[in-house]
Amino acid sequence: MLLFVDESGQDNRDMPCEVLAGVAVEQRNLWNLVKAIRSAEKEHFGDYLRNLRISEVKAKKLLKRKRFRLARQRISIPEEELPSLARSALLKGMEAHDAGKSASTVTARELTGYSRSVLRFVGTVLDIAAAHGVRVLASVVDGNAARSDRDLLRKDVVYLFERYFYLLQHSCPDRRGLVIFDELEKSRAKYLIQCMAAYFLGTDKGRFRSSLIVPEPFFVHSDLTTGIFLADLAAYILGWGWRLNSMPQPRRDELKAYARKLHQMQFHCQVDHDGAPLQVHSIVYLDDLRGRLDRLTGEGLEREEE
Q1: Which helix (H) or strand (E) holds 178?
Q2: Of 28, 29, 132, 197, which sits most exposed with the smallest number of CB within 10 A?
Q3: Predicted pLDDT of residue 294
Q4: Distance from C-alpha of 47 to C-alpha of 36, rounded to nearest angstrom
Q5: Pick from 280, 290, 288: which is nearest to 141 by CA?
Q6: pLDDT of residue 55
Q7: Which of 14, 24, 9, 30 is nearest to 262 (CA)?
Q8: Mean pLDDT (whole number) for 125-136
Q9: Own/partner pairs for 12-16, CB < 8 Å, 24+ apart?
Q10: What are the sequence ranges of the domains in the chain?
């Protein structure tokens, strides 16, 4: 099994939550999934996006607020015309870029058609993922969550790997799981590898989970990897559109339908926790990134200061 991982909101500027999201895909389903998403590109844009010089498709651009505003414009367009309008808008954007122009000649009708095609495309992609058995795992973190000062694998990453382990344990215990991250700058990648090694080699739980998860990650270019595109979509949508009743963060209501699709792609299981049954869900909310020892130490210091 392959787990493609991406993150969103870590800069704490544009999103109310930080999200580390993974999409788990069985190897036997991966190529059919890729082909189906490529077919969806032609269906919604009249061509493959790479032919229209869209080298990297990012959720932040696809699902920005302006996209929904343009799609809602009161312009009547038959559904069958949307792909040709979307393609025309993209071609005109390419021509303007090549000519060094700051503005293109894209019409309001083309912009609206393109925006509607984008939103339909995202919904189609999520449906395709569900049909190919993709499972969504994620740690959704409060942007103001307390952090640990120690050089340890972050709690949100640990929770993601824990859920991945349970998924492997319950669905394919005879096979190993690989972890594939969106490419990081070299220093961040080295730090992540070091923290993963310390966790999987230096802790009891990590050593146990390394029986199913290969502890050394791979890094790939997001613009070349469909799995990372799916993880990017999941991270952005969950950060803005997925909420538990206890979560105080604002949400974008226009993303709720997409978030519902991701919510339904969760993995659920029951595990033994200190002798008692515990229900585990693969999308988890965290409002504190400190481990138990860090929290106890912090609370002790606060009491001393009082």
Answers
A1: strand 178-182
A2: 28
A3: 64
A4: 14
A5: 288
A6: 57
A7: 24
A8: 97
A9: 12/143, 14/60, 15/143, 15/236, 15/239, 15/240, 16/143, 16/239, 16/240, 16/249, 16/250, 16/251
A10: 2-305
